[in-house]
Design goal:
With about 150 residues, the chain is of the alpha+beta class. It has one domain. It is built from 2 helices and 8 strands.
Length: about 150
């Protein structure tokens, strides 16, 4: 019985260490993505025209990138934490006369969640954002196949 308990404990520790590594990889990728957007973001603006939401990317519970067209993106900083922003499948933006404005409009994540006020908007230079990725080979982690 003691051997089974020890083996079970070893299996749990191995599984948890794998989860910790995956979590650390995700955290470092998200930090790098936030830094890339911050570097590509211009000076703050008061508003932007909004006709439709082409795409969006959560960067944290306080920041997201919103694409209004394939070649136009905005880095939005929120006033406080935005509930479920990193986990929701869809968002909405409030606007007035097709204009999203700082300190007036909000990001909506769901009917049960409180709206998130927009604190700052910065245009994103997509050429600068994508420049480090162009011509860069994808990193692949290689490992030998285990023997049967």
């Amino acid at each position: 019985m003691a051997v089974k308990t020890v083996l079970a404990a070893v299996a749990v520790v191995a599984a948890l260490s794998g989860c910790a590594r995956v979590g650390a990889d995700y955290t470092s990728r998200m930090d790098a993505r936030r830094q890339a957007y911050a570097a590509a973001a211009g000076t703050p603006v008061n508003s932007f025209h909004y006709f439709s939401l082409w795409s969006w990317e959560p960067l944290s519970d306080r920041q997201l990138a919103v694409y209004t067209r394939a070649n136009e993106a905005w880095l939005i900083d929120l006033d406080g934490r935005c509930s479920n922003l990193e986990f929701t499948n869809h968002i909405g933006l409030t606007s007035s006369a097709s204009e999203v404005s700082v300190k007036f409009d909000r990001v909506l994540t769901g009917p049960q969640d409180a709206p998130c006020f927009i604190k700052q908007i910065r245009p994103v230079d997509l050429k600068q954002l994508n420049a480090p990725q162009e011509g860069k080979p994808r990193e692949v982690e290689e490992a030998p196949r285990p023997a049967k």
